[in-house]
Structure formats: C-alpha cells, structure tokens
Amino acid sequence: MKNVTIAVDEDLLEASRKYAQEHHTTLYGLVRDLLGRTVKPGKQPNWQTGLFGLADAAKGRSQKRWRRDELYDV
Is 49 within the bounds of a domain? Predict the structure, then answer.
C-alpha cells in the first residue's frame, strides 16, 4: 500500500478527527473508505455487516419487555 500526503485546513482536520472518533474509525480509515466508495463504487463493503457489527458492539439492553402487537403499531 502507498502513502499519500494531503494538505487540509486545521478546522477541517480537527472536525474530521472528531467525526472519525465518533464513528469508531480512524482518519486514515475514513479517507480510505471515502476514496473507495467514490472511485470504485462496485467494491463497497456490505453495509449490513457494518451495521450489525455496531449493534453487537453497543451491547445495549432494552428495559422494556415488548409485546408482539406493540412491534407492529405504526
């Protein structure tokens, strides 16, 4: 893999680092993912895998016991 150096405004860099941290990735990962989606759209990762991975990592617990009829209320 090759390294690339880019010049970025300090405010944009700081906001990008914060965004990456909030989305559990690195700035490098964020840029690599963006380039991959833009340049090679056919090679996008499966979004469902990422979504289920985030859900598993959250380890949340619902305090409510749901009834079947409540799940289908719109």
Answer: yes
